[in-house]
């Protein structure tokens, strides 16, 4: 039974970005959730219509600067498929490396934000140290820490820069060596144990896609603790990606990093799955290479359906932690 309604937003420290929550409360428990977005809408898809695909890709990269390398890859592969072009072995190798870097960047930011929300400052700074080093490597590779426009149709704007492979290998080695300490802080500190027990609980885990089977197996409690399962799932995947990067660096295929495609007219849908979910694009081009149709699909588009189920039944004081654990991006929703 709803005793009162609380409005939070569109700007509030508890929220991950501009949004508005209408919470039906029974005492200090949330029993109904209405989430509204659109306070930072940029209408990126309509802006890109009529632009040449190179200019349109710059516009699309603004959807989520943290995931710009993933967006660049999805867009470039869609242009290549329309044009009937297959990227070379070295191009695919560069894209695999940059995609892993982009995912690591986002997941480390998520872990740092969760550490901050849960009040463990030593862990917050430990994660940020590794993330800052990773951003330095992205800058060395692409010339920018955010909004890269590095991957383009046919390949990449530049080949791997001198010293990048050696520094990335050293970063991966340091992160894997530091992982046991980070994992122990996440799993076994009293702050985390007390705060995460049964927090953000989902009873019907099959209905929502944001709790994976792999993460469910890691939870220490009888029911699915959404916050804990997602956090540990992210932590374990950071280690797996760091090891995978070292394996990728050992391949070092030869060949050209760029082949300019001959643009054809056409329209198709393309998708790439990431840890947070699927990035998808429906792209149409005319014979001059201008965008005639564009529809983007981001991981956050499906994650937002979890806001209500994850918050219902929780205490108001846990709202910020549960929202942070969902790892959705307001720019992706208000694109």
Write up what this structure looks like:
A 3-stranded antiparallel beta sheet has the order 1-2-3. The protein is flat. 36% of the residues are buried. The longest helix is centred in the first third of the chain and has 29 residues, at 89-117. It is of the alpha+beta class. Residues 203-224 have low confidence and may be disordered. The chain contains 13 helices and 10 strands. The chain has helices spanning 44-48, 53-60, 68-82, 89-117, 121-142, 164-188, 190-196, 213-216, 226-249, 299-303, 307-311, 319-326, 330-333; strands at 4-8, 20-26, 29-36, 151-152, 155-156, 201-202, 224-225, 266-273, 278-285, 291-297. It folds into 3 domains: 1-40 and 299-324, no CATH class; 43-85 and 263-297, no CATH class; 87-260, Cytochrome-c3 Hydrogenase, chain B (Orthogonal Bundle), CATH 1.10.645.10. Helices cover 48% and strands 15% of the residues.
Please indicate the percent range of residues in DSSP E strands (runs of 2 or more).
15-25%
Calculate the mean pLDDT score and round it: 83
Quaternary structure type: single chain
Can you write the helix and strand succession as a string?
EEEHHHHHEEHHEHEHEEEHHHH
The overall strand count is 10
Strand order of the largest sheet: 1-2-3
Which secondary structure elements does this structure contain, and how are they paired or packed?
Layout: E1 4-8, E2 20-26, E3 29-36, H1 44-48, H2 53-60, H3 68-82, H4 89-117, H5 121-142, E4 151-152, E5 155-156, H6 164-188, H7 190-196, E6 201-202, H8 213-216, E7 224-225, H9 226-249, E8 266-273, E9 278-285, E10 291-297, H10 299-303, H11 307-311, H12 319-326, H13 330-333
Antiparallel strand pairs: 1-2, 2-3, 4-5, 6-7, 8-9, 9-10
């Amino acid at each position: 039974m709803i005793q009162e309604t609380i409005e939070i937003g569109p700007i509030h420290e508890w929220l991950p970005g501009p949004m508005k929550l209408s919470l039906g409360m029974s005492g200090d428990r949330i029993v109904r959730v209405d989430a509204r977005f659109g306070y930072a809408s940029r209408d990126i898809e309509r802006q890109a219509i009529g632009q040449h695909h190179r200019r349109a890709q710059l516009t699309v990269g603004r959807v989520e600067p943290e995931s710009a390398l993933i967006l660049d890859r999805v867009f470039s592969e869609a242009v290549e498929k329309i044009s009937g072009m297959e990227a070379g072995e070295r191009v695919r190798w560069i894209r695999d490396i940059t995609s892993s870097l982009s995912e690591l960047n986002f997941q480390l930011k998520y872990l740092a934000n969760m550490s901050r929300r849960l009040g463990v400052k030593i862990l917050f700074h430990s994660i940020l140290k590794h993330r800052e080093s990773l951003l330095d490597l992205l800058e060395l590779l692409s010339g920018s820490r955010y909004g890269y426009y590095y991957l383009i149709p046919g390949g990449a704007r530049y080949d791997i820069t001198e010293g990048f492979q050696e520094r990335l290998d050293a970063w991966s080695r340091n992160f894997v060596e530091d992982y046991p300490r980070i994992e122990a802080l996440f799993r076994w500190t009293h702050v985390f144990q007390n705060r995460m027990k049964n927090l953000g609980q989902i009873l019907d885990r099959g209905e929502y896609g944001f709790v994976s089977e792999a993460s469910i197996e890691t939870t220490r409690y009888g029911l699915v603790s959404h916050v804990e399962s997602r956090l540990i799932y992210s932590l374990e995947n950071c280690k797996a990606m760091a090891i995978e990067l070292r394996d990728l660096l050992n391949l070092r295929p030869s060949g050209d990093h760029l082949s300019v495609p001959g643009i054809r007219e056409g329209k198709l849908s393309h998708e790439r799955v990431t840890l947070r979910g699927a990035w998808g694009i429906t792209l149409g081009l005319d014979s001059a290479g201008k965008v005639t149709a564009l529809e983007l699909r981001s991981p956050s588009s499906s994650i937002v359906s979890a806001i209500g189920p994850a918050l219902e039944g929780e205490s108001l004081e846990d709202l910020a932690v549960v929202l942070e654990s969902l790892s959705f991006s307001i720019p992706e929703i208000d694109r």
